[in-house]
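<backbone_tokenisation>
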Amino acid sequence: MKNKSIGSIFFLLFFLFSIGSNAQSTGGEKYRPAFHFSPKAHWMNDPNGMVYYNGVYHLFFQYHPGGTTWGPMHWGHATTQDFFNWEEKPIALYPDSLGTIFSGSIVIDKDNTAGFGKNAMVAIFTHHNQKIEEAKTGLHQYQSIAYSNDEGETWTKYKGNPVLPNPGISDFRDPKVMWYEQGKKWVMTLATKDRITFYSSPDLKAWKRESEFGVNLGAHGGVWECPDLFPLKSNGKTVWVLLVSINPGGPNGGSATQYFTGNFDGNKFVPNSTKEKWVDYGTDNYAGVTWSNTGDRKIFLGWMNNWQYANQVPTKAWRGAMTIPRELSLASVNGDCHLRSLPVKEISPSLKPVYKKGTVTNYKEIDLSAYAKPLDGKFKLDLSLENTSDFNIILSNVNGQKLIIGYDKKNNSYFIDRTLSGETSFEKGFAKKHSAPRLLASKEIHISLILDVASIELFADNGLTVMTDIFFPDSSIETIKIQSSAVNKLSSLSLSKIDQKQLK
């Protein structure tokens, strides 16, 4: 596809016309989320090029402006200052003679190492060449760069592209680049078929291969994709975290993101554990990475979908949404290092409690439906209770459709059951119950649920176990019941609406 095709020009005009409008201004569409980012129209998948600069969080994303199924990839663009009010921008990167624009990342080149200007935004992305792929040489993916000197409004592709040619690896993509201060160099974490390969560069143009990781470690049910490498502090020490998305091969089928913790010295990543660990045990959090240029704060965002059915989900004008942005930290459990993720603190101003209760003893059912009905399927539910028996949180609507979230005492696991949740006929494997292990052995369980029309996000034990599932009810959830298999004790309960006044 040529860079300035008629179709591309049409869609550029469409987005220029819509500048200043909010991605959620198309409210009223069936299944459209209110406070998760979704494009106004057409297809979206992986988050790309996430970068923070001058008070603005930039989100670029895999985008097909020609339809609502996967197609020739562009980079869409949206911005926010608070993660919940989004402004969708014109398309940032178009396909060209080198190929379509696959996933990648953006850095702020503070010291002008690439020569594009001080504080230039530099995008590092994968070119995917369909013609070369059809020739079956295996050389159809390679890494290129582009730069912006106006904070992402316009982009210029580097004339020397590609900066990292394909060495003969069919899946050679999704560069995530960071500045490695100790070595005064850029480090690229690249997905290379069934492993990760690290490269380094002084200027973002000339790249040297450093090492590879993962040949015999981690889950290998499918191809490795969309990696991310970053440091976090744990008990005063620096621990490196490596995210790797995999499709298929997730813990509940299809797409998912695993992670490793360990040490990185600028050359090699050495894990400190070989246990299988997942960022999210639900089926709908894929290709997630973190924003760059945020200092010690690491903020994660994933594509809220699964390649098992992404092209078939029953939305009309658009397909694809992003998860709630999540802040990442580390926690030690039984001497092992685990990733913890929780909704970003920026959600707090929009939360308005509609029901709060302290200790509740001797209950088998608590019905919050009277408080839930006015919330129109958009709320946050928080509860703490003793780990003494099974319990279910049943969310349902007037159509009798229900989503069940709960805890299985015997298996010490959490679950989301969307078997009877609404429209499921579009894919035979969609209507299932998904489970996730509980990592803690403490007596009290803490759960937070975030519901946004057609998605549920579960954060258990302060983010140690996380699950994200989408579902498609015929009408809004308006019934909430908490049920226990035995007399149980609940120590706190809070139901909050997401204040629409805070969501422009």
In short: The longest strand covers residues 479-498. The first helix runs from residue 6 to 17. The chain is about 5% helix and 50% strand. The radius of gyration is 22 Å.
